[in-house]
Amino acid sequence: MNQNQIAQKRLTEMMVVRGVGALLTFMAIFFLPGGTFNYWQAWVTITMIFIPMICVIFYFVKYDPEFLNHSMKFKEKEVEQKLIVRLSFIPLIISFLLPGFDKRFGGSHISPVLVIAAEILVWFTVVSGGFILLFIVGESRFPH
To answer: H/E/C letters for each residue in 64-104?
Structure first.
């Protein structure tokens, strides 16, 4: 194996470990508040988020590993930017926790058709975000 193949193998292994960690985190965020694994809406949401994410990651592992290496090492430098990134996680986490608590305590009874329509919207959002990311990376490279 040459150095490039070894680096790509390490990058792939790191992405798999991070992906499994992200999957376990998402499962905890959905299923702990929900109190059950019998929660089809959560399984659909996780699937709709992870399938496009995995495709984009594998694309970058194969065609632009330099971008992945760079983006995994990137950290915000300005205090204000760090604060904004940290604070943006609060509503994001809450938006994932609330449906689980709603499931556990039986608060809402939403039509499965409406849930599936919302999931399709989530899927298109995630996929279009992936395509936007590919376009941005293709058009402007990061400074070395």
So the answer is: CHHHHHHHHHCCCCCHHHHHHHHHHHHHHHHHHHHHHHHHH
Q: How far is CA 30 from CA 51, 89, 95, 101, in A?
A: 17, 15, 10, 9
Provide Rg for the chain, Cα atoms. 18
Residue 38 has a pLDDT of 93
Q: Which amino acid is at 113?
A: V
How far does CA 46 lie from the centroid of its chain? 9
* C-alpha to C-alpha distance for 23 and 54, rounded to whole angstroms: 11
User: Is pLDDT above 90 for 15?
Assistant: no
What totals of helices (H) and strands (E) does the chain contain, helices first?
5, 0
Question: Taking the C-alpha atoms of 138, 141, 139 and 92 in order, what is their torsion angle to the nearest 10 degrees?
Answer: 80
Distance of CA 101 to the CA centre of its chain: 21
Q: What is the mean pLDDT of the chain?
A: 85
